[in-house]
Design goal:
By secondary structure, this protein is mostly helical. It contains nine helices and no strands.
Length: 137
């Protein structure tokens, strides 16, 4: 599935079951992506929750890391990245270290700066569900 606009996921799920979707490409970071991912996360938690419950926590972490990576790539320039990190209350030193790091977006998505900018609590506030808690319910 490619994200072609707002609320693409609900429209897709009208035609295809959530457990039939095996890949999602998020092209830009918006709060609606959390809402669009939730039906898939629920479906995957329901489908895999019985047999692979121990893996769901790592999948939750991977999902959050991927969303951090998408935000980093979306910001594009050093100046914009620094400005956005500072806007999200990341200390100057951590923001500068991330902006001037030679690491790529995936490696940086697990950095201190991006974890401070996008905490697990902030993802929960955006409405991103946890597969681990969904499977346990």
């Amino acid at each position: 599935m490619l994200d072609i606009g707002y609320a693409t996921m609900p429209r897709l799920l009208e035609h295809v079951a959530a457990d039939r979707v095996d890949a999602v490409v998020v092209s830009h970071g918006h709060p609606d992506h959390c809402a669009d991912l939730n039906p898939l996360l629920r479906g995957w938690a329901g489908y895999f929750g019985f047999s692979q419950l121990h893996e769901l926590a790592s999948l939750d972490g991977w999902t959050r890391r991927r969303l951090r990576c998408v935000a980093w790539v979306q910001w594009k320039t050093r100046g914009r990245r620094y400005k956005e990190l500072r806007h999200l209350n990341v200390p100057e030193k951590a923001a500068s270290a991330a902006v001037f790091s030679p690491k790529g977006p995936w490696r940086l998505s697990s950095s201190n700066a991006l974890h401070r900018a996008f905490t697990n609590r902030s993802f929960k506030g955006l409405g991103l569900f946890s597969m681990e808690t969904l499977a346990g319910a």
